[in-house]
Amino acid sequence: MRFYGLMKDDDFLSIINLVKGDDWIVEDIQEKTKQGLNEEGVKNKLKDIANEIESWKKSFKMMPESTIFVFVSDKENPQAFKIYDTTSLGCATSLAPPRWKVYKKGLEF
């Protein structure tokens, strides 16, 4: 599955509104939790994550505004998201695993 990085926070908020359906899975890799959510629940969770990302960007003054944390499978019809946190920043040659994986049931990746 191919993912596209979202450069603008407003893009993420717009895409959240395009989320449809009740069979969503949210995995928090750091907390080692996995839960199923309906459409309203997943939208609320993604909005909470968007607020957390906004907070990071305000707190870490040295971090460029264009830092990408959110990757989506399809900007028009989102089916999966990979969302990274500040621990992914640095000089590594590859990204650490995402902090959150949010996807339609049956699309485990």
Please outline the helices and strands.
Elements: E1 4-5, H1 9-16, E2 24-28, E3 33-37, H2 39-59, E4 70-72, E5 80-83, E6 100-104
Antiparallel strand pairs: 1-4, 2-3, 2-6, 4-5, 5-6
How would you describe the overall organization of this protein?
With 109 residues, the chain is of the alpha+beta class. It has two helices and six strands; from the N terminus they run E-H-E-E-H-E-E-E. The protein has helices spanning 9-16, 39-59, and strands at residues 4-5, 24-28, 33-37, 70-72, 80-83, 100-104. The protein has a six-stranded antiparallel sheet with strand order 1-4-5-6-2-3. Helix 1 runs antiparallel to helix 2 (39-59).
Quick rundown:
By secondary structure, the chain is of the alpha+beta class.
Low-confidence stretches: none
- Tell me the radius of gyration: 13 Å
Order of helices and strands: EHEEHEEE
Strand content: 15-25%
Query: What is the CA–CA distance across the termini?
Result: 8 Å
Characterize the main sheet. Answer: 6 strands, antiparallel
Biggest sheet, spatial arrangement of strands: 1-4-5-6-2-3
What is the number of E strands? 6
